[in-house]
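Dear colleague,

Thank you for sharing your sequence with our group. We've completed the structure prediction you requested, and as agreed, I am returning the results in plain text so they can be pasted directly into your records. Please verify that the sequence below matches your submission; if there's any discrepancy, let me know and we will rerun it promptly.
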Amino acid sequence: MIRFQGTLDRMRIKLFADGADLEHIRKTCENPHIRGITTNPTLMRQSGVEDYRSFAQDVLEAVPELPVCFEVLADDRMEMARQARAIQSWGPNVFVKIPVTNTRGESSLPMVRSLVEDGVQVNITAVFTLDQVREAADVLAANVPGFVSIFAGRIADAGIDPVPVMTQAVEILGNLPQTELIWASPREVFNVVQADACGCHVITLTDGLMSKLALIGKDLNEFSLETVKMFYDDALAAGYSSDSLVSGNAA
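Please find the predicted structure tokens below.
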């Protein structure tokens, strides 16, 4: 059984903030635990981003040193490569997110190989299987920084334990000292503990999960008492009457 007893400071894993709200990104990066930023077109659309490049420039101005991952928009592999080179030019801390396949299921990895050979820092994303991890490892380079993002939360949504997958993925990428494995799409704070335990290098966190990080290592007896008090206080605040409850049962 995986159980962490301690504080976040004792973990090896890096925390990357996942989002597309500029003000939130600025505030989030004040947290010393946050070691990078990731975003994607879905998050950007949800946040109302209209101008991708302008948004990216604002983010890089706010986060000039931490790794920042921006995703290509194209589905054609040649256009993916063209966009990737443009995105990489935005700054030395930029990593280009490239889906492991396009929407037709055609591998993006041969194209990724050519980018990596030219020194482009990539984040191979939307990875779900160990075969995809092995194929990604074949196109990455030992001397070029990069990421492989496995969507562990969605693997769990499919009823599959992601921990063995992540553990084996760490081993597969072991000969690539500058490539880090990302636990993407976490569903709960315990995923941070799991990711750290299996040797994963990075986990992405939304605002909702980051707000719960302080609970890591919390005493469970104290947590139990706080929960009891919460239920009691909410009952009082709602105006529920003990007399009406009892009289209602008697009727």
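Summary note from our side: The mean pLDDT is 93.

Kind regards,
the structure core
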